[in-house]
Structures are given as C-alpha cells and as structure tokens.
Predict the structure.
Amino acid sequence: MEVHPPHGPVHSIKDFMVHILAITIGLLMAQGLESTAEWWHHRSQVREARENIAREVRDNEDRVAHELASLPKEQDQLTWLMGEVSNREHGKTAAPHEALVWTAGRLSESSWNTAYSTGAVAHMEYDEVRRYAHIYALQELFNSSMDKYLESRRDMYAFLTRAQLPDKPSAAEYEYGKRAIAAEMVTGQFLREIAETLRSSYTKESGEGR
C-alpha cells in the first residue's frame, strides 16, 4: 500500500490527526485484506494436500493388500526352493513345482513430500499431521524392507543361474545360495508384519479422517 501526503496544506492539528487516522485505517484494511488472502491461500493449499495425500494413501493401501495376498505363496515357494537346493546339493531331485511368481511393490510418498515442501503441513492440525507421519514412517520402513527383499532375491537368482551350469556348484556356493533364500524368507516375514501394521493404520485413518 502506498502512503500519500495530504493533497492540501495541513492548517491545524485536527487536519493532521484526520490525515493520520485515514492512513491508519488504510493500513489496517490493507493488512486485513492481505491476511484474508493468505488465509484463503493456505486453506486451499491444505485442502489440496489433504485430497492428494488421501488418494495416495488409498493407492498404497491397495498395494499393501496385494502384497499381503501374495506373500504367503511366496513363502511357500521359498520353502520348496530351499528343499530343492538341499536335495540337489546331496545329489537328489525334488518333486516338480510350478513356475515361481514374485511381486514387488513400493509405496508412494510424493504427495506427503509435496505437502511438506509447499508448507501445507504447517497449516494442518497437529493430530492430522501426527497420523500422516506415523503412516508414512511405516511406509518408508516397508519400502526399505522391500528393497532388501529384492536384493536377496537378486542374490538368490544369481545362485540359481549358477546352479544351471554343467559343473556342480561348490559347497561354499550352495551355502551362499541357501543363505540368500533364507534371507528372502526372513525379509518376507518382516514385510508381512509391517504390511499388517500398515493395514491396521489405514483402517484407523479411514475412520478418523472422516
């Protein structure tokens, strides 16, 4: 807001006070309008952030549900595979098994990160931010565990590829392969525990968020 001097000469203290009062009222109005505009901007920002986060959480909930449905079968495959590797190590053959099928899903956090970077989180209620922070912390733990799950799967497949070669793997190579399979089994169980906790948190959020 620009402050202009009186258009005419000030002849008395009364004229001076009237002018000061006009300036003061103008400044207060300008500040009020600016505050109102900022309030509407923050309100719109928070509303958009809530909608994006809610959509992202729903999508992640679907991915977690899919992973929970897939993990039991993957554990069965790993149990069979461990037995198969042990049998081959001792010159035996295992019963035929269907083709191995795996899943790999990471949970998104872009909407939550955007809400932080734009400052929308600062204008949300504390309880709301606390609930979101809890969910996204669990999702980060899920993603890091999924990365380890894929890493041990890579090691496992490296051994299985080696086992297809004409010459028999060494005892050390068999030990490496079995460790990779065991790591995959343990990480899968940990993933399942995190996913179960996440599913409970999603259910709670859907109730409190309404």
User: Anything to note?
Assistant: DSSP finds four helices and no strands in the chain. Residues 112 and 203 are 18 Å apart (CA to CA). The mean pLDDT is 82.
